[in-house]
Specification:
Blueprint lengths: L1 E10 L4 H17 L3 E17 L2 E13 L1 H13 L3 E8 L4
Antiparallel strand pairs: 1-3, 1-4, 2-3
């Protein structure tokens, strides 16, 4: 398994309970695919640099995971399909 850092932005126009449900759903994608989340941080609501899908604010989340390639591919696929996720970024961390 490799280490990855995953950042995603959730729409802020939803209820706070919906925002946390979306974040938990994104976290569950990794754990359901035989991988583990080492660190999960909620960075809070921030103003976006530019509007994304007519949204000007978003909730930022960052997680560090030890995951298989299949788990990361599945996360990428589901994040692209989920309308509540504005953007996501997956970075493979260097092996030391």
């Amino acid at each position: 398994m490799s280490k990855y850092e995953i950042m995603f932005i959730v729409k802020a126009t939803q209820d706070s309970s919906e925002v946390s449900k979306t974040a938990d759903a994104m976290k569950t994608i990794i754990t359901d695919n035989k991988s583990k989340v080492a660190d999960f941080k909620e960075l809070g609501e921030k103003k976006l640099a530019y509007p994304i899908k007519k949204e000007i604010n978003g909730y930022y989340y960052v997680m560090t995971v030890e995951a298989t390639h299949e788990a990361v591919s599945e996360f990428n696929r589901k994040a692209q399909l989920d309308e509540r996720v504005l953007r996501h970024l997956i970075i493979k961390l260097d092996e030391e």
